[in-house]
């Protein structure tokens, strides 16, 4: 198993460790995917690196291999959820952008027509 720095007070680290339940849909050596507890679309899956970094930018800077693995699992989830051809991929960075959990994560959203930008 890869060395994966974790943070004790982080909800997503606890979900990754299995200490808090989640509806897990896929996983790999470096990333985990589970359904958002408050879905904003028929398909709303969060894809998170096992490595704790607060934002997607921090992950990119700290560990490109984990960034690559995150996108690989996003593609796998989009395919298995049936939204490979039509989905929205969102990364919120900072509270002003709506980030509430400071463990980097991708929102994979699909199964509806998005009209708003
Ligand atoms: P963000 O606002 O970009 O930080 O996204 C955090 C997301 O985590 C939100 O969409 C929440 O609905 C979701 N969330 C919070 N707690 C849980 C949980 N226990 N299991 C699954 N998703 C969660
Ligand atoms: Zn974490």
Architecture overview:
This protein is of the alpha+beta class and 117 residues long. It has a single domain, classed as HIT-like (HIT family, subunit A, 2-Layer Sandwich), CATH 3.30.428. 26% of the residues lie in helices and 21% in strands. It is built from 3 helices and 5 strands, in the order H-E-E-E-H-H-E-E. It has a 5-stranded antiparallel sheet, with helices on one face. A hairpin with a 7-residue loop joins strand 2 and strand 3. It is globular, with a radius of gyration of 13 Å. It starts with 10 loop residues before the first helix and ends in a 7-residue tail after the last strand. 33% of the residues are buried. The site of adenosine monophosphate has 12 residues, from loops.
CATH class: Alpha Beta
Ends distance: 39 Å
Q: Mind summarizing the main beta sheet?
A: 5 strands, antiparallel
The CATH architecture classification is 2-Layer Sandwich
Number of domains: 1
List the helices and strands and how they pair.
Elements: H1 11-17, E1 24-27, E2 31-35, E3 43-49, H2 56-62, H3 64-80, E4 87-90, E5 106-110
Antiparallel strand pairs: 1-2, 2-3, 3-5, 4-5
Zinc ion binds next to helix 1.
List keywords for this structure.
26% helix, 117 residues, HIT family, subunit A, binds adenosine monophosphate, 5-stranded antiparallel sheet, binds zinc ion, alpha+beta
């Amino acid at each position: 198993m890869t060395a994966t720095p974790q943070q004790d007070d982080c909800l997503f680290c606890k979900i990754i460790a299995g200490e808090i339940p989640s509806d897990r849909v896929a996983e790999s050596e470096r990333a985990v995917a589970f359904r958002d507890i408050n879905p904003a679309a028929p398909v709303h899956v969060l894809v998170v690196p096992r490595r704790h970094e607060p934002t997607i930018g921090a992950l990119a800077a700290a560990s490109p291999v984990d960034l690559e693995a995150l996108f690989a699992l996003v593609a796998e989830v989009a395919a298995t959820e049936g939204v490979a051809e039509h989905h929205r991929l969102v990364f919120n960075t900072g509270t002003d952008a709506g980030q509430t959990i400071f463990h980097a994560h991708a929102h994979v959203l699909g199964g509806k027509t998005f009209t708003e930008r």
